[in-house]
Amino acid sequence: HPDRAIAEDAFMEFGLAAYGDVVQAADALDSAKLRTWLDEPAIDQRRRGFYGLAVGIVAAEGRAKGDMTEAGACVAALENSIAAPANDLRAGFDGLLGGLLVARGKAAVDAMAAQGLLDADTRAGDARHALAAFRFAWEFLAESVPRERVADAAARLLANPAVTADAVIDLARYEHWTSLDDVAALWETIGRDDPLVRRAVAGYLTACPLDVARSHATRIADNDAKAWASAVQAAGLPPRSSD
Asked: 3-state class of 107 per DSSP?
């Protein structure tokens, strides 16, 4: 809208709307404008996240209706914007990745991996945005991006020191216990110099119902009871009687 105040109010309404309601409004979204705004320098960069998500929604709706031209144009715009050179402080990048997950489903995870966004040396900001996009997919996109695939992708970021603690916490929330040994090993690797990682590891091992998790916890406590107790306390968890 040419009136800036009205345009701002409209944008805020979308910011407050539930995801399902935004999807229902897909037919009212102007995809050509949205695609242009993704990389428009004059656009408030804080809006890019929603624009990226909206482009992904339009792409998914277009594919569902058989409009592959529209869907293809939207996916190309998202991929170009994601691949564009930028520093580590690109606002709304999680929305662009979320839009790609909406538009391409599980294939988007492979695309993110191919661009190096899940590597151990991925830039801190990009890695945090990737985890945020996976949280969105976990909550809203289970039909098109299987949750096991989301958790496996998040697990790839365990080796990235910038987001190791966050990745461990997310995996505990996802009840992704197949990464148990990798998480336990973090105590003596990345966790040695990062108390946040040790706190996250303690939380994960305490939450995991498997016997091997208890074995890892006991081993860690036997080696350094004070450090283990401190990590458990920092995680806000009651200590196990066998620890």
From this structure: helix
Question: What's the CA gap between 198 and 226, in Å, rounded?
Answer: 12
Range 77-80 contact pairs with CB under 8 angstroms and sequence separation of 24 or more:
77/35, 77/38, 78/38, 78/52, 78/103, 79/111, 80/39
Measured between alpha carbons, how far is 145 from 143 in angstroms, rounded to an integer? 6
Select from 213, 243, 211 the least CA-distant residue to 228: 243
* Burial tier of 27 (Cβ tally within 10 Å: 0-12, 13-18, 19+): exposed
The rounded distance, in Å, linking the Cα atoms of 188 and 193 is: 9
Q: Both tokens of residue 138?
A: 């976990």
Low-confidence ranges of the chain (pLDDT < 70): 88, 237-243
pLDDT at 106: 95
- Rounded Cα distance between 14 and 85, Å, is 28
Residues in the chain, total:
243
Tell me the C-alpha distance between 114 and 97, whole Å.
13
- The answer to whether the predicted template modeling score (pTM) of the entire model surpasses 0.85 is yes
